[in-house]
Structure of Aldo/keto reductase:
Amino acid sequence: MEYRRLGASGLTVPALSFGAGTFGGSGPLFGAWGNTDAREARRLVDICLDAGISMFDTADVYSDGASEEMLGQAIKGRRDAVLISTKAGLPTGDGPNDAGTSRARLIRSVDGALRRLGTDYIDLFQLHAFDAATPIEEVVATLDDLVREGKIRYLGVSNFSGWQLMKSLAAADRDRRRRYVAHQVYYSLVGRDYEWELLPLGLDQGVGAVVWSPLGWGRLTGKIRRGTPPPPTSRLHATAAFGPPVDDEHLFRVVDVLEELSHETGRAVPQIAVNWLLRRPTVATVIIGARDEAQLRQNIGAVGWSLTPEQTARLDTASSRTAPYPYFPYHRQEGFARLNPSPVASIA
């Protein structure tokens, strides 16, 4: 397993992390992801640790906290061997303080996560969404206090826009608070919007990307092909509405190249899709999920090898889309490009 620094922090994380969203799956979204029981969860954690995957990601909203509880049981007796990443901020109830990142909510959320996980500290705690109703100064001060108390080691966010993240970092710097070092983001061959603003911001500010849904919300598993509808077992039938949309022609253009490369390399389509991501700037770790052991072992095969520069270029071309204003000029007009070179233009 390859290991990397998480942003500008001193924390080293594995290139692949494991997403525990399938643990204890319940409800229309998480039930469709999977419903891994306690015995299977421990088996999956065993396989991860044997492969060097030591970071496990979850959240309080995953199956109403059941994911955190099951992950806590699966790592019991080996807490020092793992890194726990969890999130809070999305609604967990109908009460007035059951959503957001106010001081009261954050303290309650962290204490609840610690209890469910059966631990006394969280390695990486991330805000699951931006809370426009709570002053940023209150948020960063509360998180700083929780770090000082030893309940949290490192801080991050998830699904923030560029201005939300930059304003938060500026507030932390001004008030001498702990900074966010991670941004958990959607990034895939069929979803490269991250590159337009958040990637340059991450490079400039030392914020590492923790990538979720690297297979495009289940579209790059190798089971969906041009002229072939998703199989009956695909979770897309139940979850497509919850995830980012993808134009069919754009998807098939990417899938066509992935299939070509699969034949050339002998690697599975999902392995190629994840391997491409691992070479992108700012990417610290890619979260892989699995419903069962076979799926997990296949996903682990995304590391330990690399696509050639020519193969990478083919995927870059197939997956590229014209960026919207104001990002478009930086990639297409010489004058702008000289002042603002694309951080991904020279990758191979």
